[in-house]
Amino acid sequence: MSVWEHYGKNDPYYGVLSCQEYRAGALDEEARRKFFLSGVEVVDGFIALAEETFGPLRFGTALDYGRGVGRLTRRLAERFGEVVGVDISTHMLEEAGRNLAEQGNARFEPAGAMGATPVDFIMSKIVFQHIPPAEGVRVLAVLAGRLAPGGTGILDLPIRYTGGRIRRLLSTVRGLLPSREPIIPLHIYDLDAIRAVLARTGCQMREKISSMPLYEKAVVIFHRPMGPPGFEPGTDGL
Length: 238
Fold this sequence. Notes:
By secondary structure, the protein is an alpha/beta fold. The chain has helices at 3-10, 12-16, 29-54, 71-79, 90-99, 133-145, 164-176, 191-200, and strands spanning 61-65, 82-87, 106-110, 119-124, 147-161, 204-211, 215-223. It has a single domain, classed as Rossmann fold. The chain has a seven-stranded mixed sheet with strand order 3-2-1-4-5-7-6, with helices on both faces. The longest helix is centred in the first third of the chain and has 26 residues, at 29-54.
């Protein structure tokens, strides 16, 4: 069983946000309310940053990659005409379906069989860091290829480990010790590789870099211009 099928089946909310209050045995109505409220903050913040960077969005169809149990998908469904949620775990897809049963504008696709219908907005939060970079770059190319002209995408990923040698060693040792559940991986990306794949798909890119306790993170905002290939209207970076 893969890491994500394990968490999707046994501990889906903790698999999305690794806080003890979201463990299967601890999750209550108040914790669920807090969990989905955090999704509202993330979606609204990412939309605001995307619009600040490349201008007003079209609120037609959004795609949530790595949708988990629907934490972000629920808010996207409130703000867009339609939302597509994509995930690798069939158990996560099923739980998201239950969480969005009353949202008639939400549909789901398995990550291994994504559609090709163009979308206006793509977002992915704390997902690419769990995907090996070679695979993540391939996925990003597929996602960027689905952006309609004028569409914008936004995601975050680690770009440099800053945890120090001792913390890094402890993390490595922890990964080698027996555990009752799979270790959720953390991968570091090369920002130049991200920039290159987005350029090949005809997208502009801006990034905003910040520091986390163990790594440096980039929020990557990418946009497909309305004009012909190579056209880039004047815009200031972040």
